[in-house]
Design brief:
The chain has about 425 residues and is α+β, with helices and mostly antiparallel strands. About 55% of the residues lie in helices and about 10% in strands. The chain is built from 18 helices and 12 strands. It holds the Pfam family p450.
């Protein structure tokens, strides 16, 4: 196998995922690299960007060749090793250095820790939560419906999944915006698009999160109560020991609060934006929610991919998209590019409520790292859209507001805000 170091790939098209313009509107860039350089060496970040559906499916279903372990640290060190060292020292001096979360673990550690979340978020548990999620969604819509306008991000997309999770881990509902600040800090730091001072502030906020949960964890260690957090706190490893506090708060922040709320938030907001820009699709959906809502949810996940990409590391020399890639190389798997691959999806940029294979997207990953919270996310999306579309008509972007924009980031695609107007429907 010939090992190409990326010189040819960098010419096609020679731009970086780190560019703010690409962060805001990435889909033309994805089309270009998927067509011309499906294994693309990012000239600024240094990692390989993988963009084709079949390649990514092969990678995520072969964890022996493509490891998840320590990929974030490799990415940070590749972009700015001095800043990565600063971050580690700040954690050590004021809190606990984060431990690898589910998405950054290989088996057998991953399998052992995932079992807890699989049990806690099993289909039966999600069914038990369903009435609460439904009621919360309709209550949130009722608060703004009569006004004829709202910011979908702030008034529906953020609070719905956070309230659902907080109800399961014993966090007071009034603290959801404090939690939101901490999850935002984690996402922004993880996305590696911050200035030095911004990253310091994000780390300080994560350390606040660590200290906030310390007394809650200690109480649950003394008096388990059967809650999801209690199970996480008291789980025993094969050697009989408990998870360390650093492991507990890392799972809590990244796997539960970020993984269980940020992605749902972004998908709900992006779905509403799609409907505001497609009056025909919105009218069709509202005309028969039972028929079209399941496909719409899958199309939102496919088209907008709340998780744009995650990392893997090669454990041996491989060939992807005609490029030889050495062992130890960092790959960035662009799920969002794969979900618009015309080799898999006809007219891939089009919202199609009749699409037969909409659910074959990989917005939730695949293989051993398939998102354990996917069933919960789908129910949150279902009730958010049903509550909104049952309560309003003529949904549209608010007049006089700037074009909706996204927070910069390598991992998640998140709208800053989404002001909309509508005609209320009588309760």
């Amino acid at each position: 196998m010939t090992d190409n170091t990326g010189a040819e790939a960098q010419q096609l098209p020679g731009r970086s995922l780190l560019e703010p313009e690409i962060q805001e509107s990435p889909f033309e860039f994805y089309d270009a690299i998927r067509e011309q350089a499906p294994a693309y060496r990012d000239p600024d970040a240094g990692f390989w960007v993988i963009s084709r559906y079949d390649d990514i499916r092969r990678i995520v279903t072969d964890p022996q060749t493509f490891s998840s372990s320590a990929t974030v640290e490799l990415a940070r060190d590749a972009v700015d090793p001095e800043r990565a060292a600063m971050a580690r020292e700040l954690y050590r001096s004021k809190g606990w250095e984060p431990a690898p979360t589910l998405s950054l673990q290989d088996d057998p550690e991953h399998r052992q820790n995932r079992a807890l979340f699989t049990s806690a978020l099993r289909a039966g548990k999600v069914r038990e939560l369903d009435p609460f999620i439904r009621q919360t969604a309709f209550d949130l819509v009722d608060k703004f419906r009569a006004a004829g306008a709202c910011d979908i991000v702030e008034e529906l997309a953020v609070p719905l999944p956070l309230i659902a999770i907080c109800s399961q881990v014993g966090v007071p509902i009034e603290d959801i915006w404090k939690i939101k600040g901490w999850t935002d800090a984690w996402v922004k730091r993880f996305s590696m698009m911050q200035s030095l001072e911004e990253e310091r502030d994000s780390i300080e906020q994560e350390i606040e999160f660590q200290h906030y949960f310390r007394p809650i964890v200690e109480r649950l260690q003394d008096r388990p109560d059967g809650s999801l957090l209690s199970d996480l706190v008291n789980i025993r490893k094969p050697d009989g020991s408990r998870l360390s506090y650093a492991q507990i708060v890392s799972h809590l922040l990244a796997d539960l609060f970020v993984g269980g709320s940020e992605t749902s938030t972004n998908a709900i907001a992006e779905g509403v934006l799609l409907l505001c820009r497609d009056e025909r699709a919105c009218a069709t959906l509202q005309g028969d929610l039972d028929r079209y809502l399941p496909t719409f949810i899958e199309e939102v996940l496919r088209l907008q991919s709340p998780v744009q990409g995650l990392y893997r590391v090669t454990t041996r020399d491989v060939e992807i998209g005609g490029q030889g890639i050495r062992a130890g190389s960092l790959l960035n798997l662009r799920f969002a590019a794969a979900n618009r691959d015309d080799a898999q999806f006809a007219c891939p940029a089009h919202l199609d409520l009749e699409r037969g294979n909409a659910g074959s997207h990989i917005a939730f990953g695949s293989g051993i790292h398939h998102c354990v919270g996917a069933p919960l996310a789908r129910r949150e999306m279902h009730w958010a859209f049903e509550a909104l579309l049952s309560g309003v008509r003529n949904l549209r972007l608010a007049k006089g507001e700037p074009e909706p924009s996204h927070w910069p980031g390598l991992m998640l695609r998140a709208l800053r805000k989404l002001p909309v107007e509508f005609d209320p429907v009588e309760a």
